[in-house]
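Reviewers asked in the last cycle whether our approach scales beyond single polypeptides. To address this, we selected a multi-component target totalling 248 residues and predicted its structure end to end. The input consisted of the following lines:
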Amino acid sequence: MIKLVLIRHGESTWNKENRFTGWTDVDLSEKGIAEAKQAGKILKSEGYTFDIAFTSVLKRAIKTLDLLLEEMDQLWIPVVKSWKLNERHYGALQGLNKAEMATKYGEEQVMIWRRSYDIPPPALTPDDERYPGSDPRYAALAPGDIPLFETLKDTVHRVMPYWETAITPLLKQGQKVVIAAHGNSLRALVKYLDHISDADIPGLNIPTGIPLVYELDDQLTPVKKYYLGDPEVVAQQLAAVVHQGKAK
Ligand code: 3PG
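The resulting structure, written as structure tokens, was:
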């Protein structure tokens, strides 16, 4: 039985302020730090160990992984960082308050922006200061590959090839893998693992800072999946994610 652990970063400062974040590189909040440490404690108490970790190039995921591994006394394992695991790029919504947008444009529109599979958010322009075109961490990308926005479908198209080429060979060798990433890069992976249709994917939310365990067979087909930790906390965290798109 192969076990894979996925974790969305702990609460970020912009989760706290309820702002669309995407590729903006914001830090963890105090609560997010506590969530990451708690995730590490649970994993340790349940006897988990890892051989290798994957994360994005955004500090909220990197720091979550670090805090989690520190709790597990596993800071020594190899950590692979890739922009392919970044949050979905939220285009010109980045920085805007989700509840204010719901008041202005309606909750339904915000739901479409947040959860539709292939309807794009408003795009950035390359001259926008939020466009990461001159950010050194993306220097290896062709300019055309740096997004002005992404739909979840676009996110699937960058996450899944990375999953296939970088992660699945290690899982098949029996390596124990943890992936610390983001709400929508993980929704992309979960969509694939659980065969969730385009029509049903809007109903999937991922809470911050809670380890999600997949038990996979030799072909990497999921046999079982569960969150580690108090089911009430998981339910509360999921409700909080949904609530972010409500008008105040
Ligand atoms: C963001 O980028 O704003 C969040 O991390 C994910 O947001 P969402 O739940 O609104 O998609």
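The mean pLDDT is 96. We regard this as preliminary and will revisit it once experimental data from Aim 1 are available.
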